[in-house]
Fold this sequence. Notes:
By secondary structure, the protein is mainly alpha-helical. Helices cover about 85% and strands about 0% of the residues. It contains 3 helices and no strands. The protein has helices spanning about 1-15, 20-35, 40-65. Helix 2 (about 20-35) packs antiparallel against helix 3. It is elongated. The chain starts with a helix and ends with a helix. The mean pLDDT is about 80.
Amino acid sequence: xxxxxxxxxxxxxxxxxxxxxxxxxxxxxxxxxxxxxxxxxxxxxxxxxxxxxxxxxxxxxxxxxx
Length: 66
């Protein structure tokens, strides 16, 4: 949890707060899947969230270096 808490402000800074709604939605999807005891849906939701975040971070760091 410490890593997650530390990464949130950094992620917000790098992406310029572009992903607030997407992050809330995907975290809700993960939590709903866990509550439904559906590990495949939880895995898929988290995987999509991480891939999307990785792409946004890459775009944000590229924009900052230009």
